[in-house]
Amino acid sequence: MRTNIAEYSMISCGSLVQALEAMDQTPNPIPFAGGTDLMVYLHFGKLPIGTYLNLHSVPELRSKIEITDQEVILHGLTTYMDVYTHSFFKSEMPILQQAASVVGAIGIQTRGTWVGNIGNASPAADGVPALMLYDADLVLASRQGQRRVFLADYYQGYKKTVRLPNELILEIRIPRQKINTNSFVYYRKVGERNAQAISKVLLAARLEFWPSQTIKDIRIVYGSVMPYTYRMKKLEQHLLNQHITPQLIAEAVHWVGHDLKPIDDIRSNAKYRRKVAQNLMEEFLTQAQANVVFSEGK
Amino acid sequence: MDLQKITFRINGQVWQGQVHPMKRLLDTIREDIGLKGTKEGCGEGECGACTILLDGIPVMSCMVPTCQADGHEITTIEGLESQGQLHVMQKAFLQEGGAQCGICTPGMILSATAYMQHPEIAQTWANALSGNLCRCTGYTKILAACSSAQKDSCCHHCDSKTTPDC
Ligand SMILES: Cc1cc2nc3c(=O)[nH]c(=O)nc-3n(C[C@H](O)[C@H](O)[C@H](O)COP(=O)(O)OP(=O)(O)OC[C@H]3O[C@@H](n4cnc5c(N)ncnc54)[C@H](O)[C@@H]3O)c2cc1C
Ligand code: FES
Ligand code: FES
After folding, report:
1. Cβ-Cβ contacts under 8 Å, B62 against chain A
2. Fewer beta carbons within 10 angstroms: which end of chain A, N or C?
């Protein structure tokens, strides 16, 4: 390890009220959840020196996943494994389970949290696109009160978010989904290998047809392509109320090609990312068309 | 930074010490407690050599600051045997030749025993062990050991198929 830990401090708090008071101090402490991002920075001597707040010491953040009639609530310390092993997600939000299973490997999934994935703000996050796909909302809390922010509006640029330095992400709230045979979900991560690989390109998407073959509802979210997880709202608008035809697929693929401004980094370059992003779009729309069973009654 | 008083159970025994809260649990286990069975490979969460069980669930101990173990239950490779008898998974690794240099072995065995006890955490043995890299690439024998331990620990009396290969 290239770091002298004596330069750091880490505080523990017995309650959320105390944690929010601690967050309000100057300089603001940095939240520390599962540590699967922060401990890597520590190892490489890249963790900013300062005070960290051990979120595992806050009982409210350790609450179990809640499922109400309207929404699903993941708490601050909900891990990938919590979602993977919970029977609810299989039927109603399968992409969350799929995302949970592609993050790192078991020993990362048992420790890493969904909120930490959001907080780290990496363009290559695998959990964030799955949450965005299902219209997740964040509850941010500070001593001054709570507010809700759409996850799709949370990122402003590379590692830039709307979170204030004294705020904690308390919960992720996801509206319950209506599942029917007219809907199709897609999640594909392209990386070096299956386990322990960071994404090069990821597409999370879903759509619903109604009536019959008309696109009624659609979400398109790219990971690892732009400097932050990117929802293509304009393309979604364009595809609404249309039928999937070879012509429409070609249009969407073209759109992806000129709208995305892919990043160049150690894992891949912009040209490759653009091409793969286009291929994934083609695959998504083609599979959606082929796999949906149109049912008449609703 | 002040040290913090940390208390947890490790291999069934209570341990208490003054530790820097951010010290890696891996280092606390090896340096402060003196149990050297837990290995360090990469130090960055990739290799699984440092795998331990925290409340029965596999975690990479190089990713856990010691303060997060306070009040919890830890099992390391030293804690798997009971009353001088090796765990079925340890016996299977011996029988099948599942260890070569042995650096990955403690982590491999802990991940494997956890999967045997909690089949819900992965779909296949390969998934369950995908975070444990073997630099000697003895995967065939490692997987053979896992299946063999599975058979040995199965009571063959139920048909619930709750465990892999049951
Ligand atoms: C070997 C390895 C493989 C990995 N593979 C993947 C992968 O395949 N896909 C992937 O997406 N990620 C991967 N990761 C990265 C990491 O596991 C995830 O990003 C994880 O979700 C981080 O969660 P955490 O709880 O460990 O976060 P931490 O490391 O504790 O924190 C991460 C960031 O979030 C902030 N934060 C945490 N909680 C809060 C809060 N309540 N409010 C505000 N900010 C907060 C922290 O301040 C920090 O900036 C991998 C990491 C390792 C070590
Ligand atoms: S040493 Fe912890 S995962 Fe490699
Ligand atoms: S036996 Fe040598 S690393 Fe696995």
Report:
1. 39, 43
2. C
